[in-house]
Write a structure and sequence with these properties.
Length: 127
């Protein structure tokens, strides 16, 4: 078996998209997912529209500690995640302290676990 040696400081990690894993958020993408034209299109193709809606996703917003345990088990030292802007700014010009604190807490937990947080500020969705 070939053994690979990575340089000191190499970041070995995983990544996620907030909208696709956090769940329970309304934004431009969730509105599109529920749009009548899109739902009709999926039905015409014989597909169940609910199979194509993120909805609660895998609930990472509520269960990040579970996800952090998985990161530790994988042995990664980096985690790239995106910020769901609709959670930070649910209405134009109105910011959610709860949303901001949520991401601050994720960053703190990652740092304590010695996992480098890499933040994507925008990943397709808008409030």
């Amino acid at each position: 078996m070939v053994q690979l040696n990575f340089p000191t400081g190499f970041l070995w990690g995983v990544s996620t998209s907030a909208y696709q894993i956090e769940g329970d958020i309304t934004n431009d993408w969730s509105e599109w997912e529920h749009s009548p034209n899109r739902l009709a299109y999926l039905k015409r193709r014989g597909l169940n529209p609910h199979d194509f809606i993120c909805g609660k996703a895998c609930g990472s917003y509520y269960y990040f500690n579970r996800d952090l345990a998985c990161l530790k088990e994988l042995g990664v030292n980096a985690y790239r995640f995106s910020i769901e802007w609709a959670r930070i700014e649910p209405q134009p010009g109105k910011y959610s302290l709860i949303g901001i604190k949520y991401y601050q807490q994720i960053i703190k937990q990652l740092q304590v676990a010695e996992i480098e947080p890499l933040v994507t500020l925008w990943h397709w969705t808008n409030p």
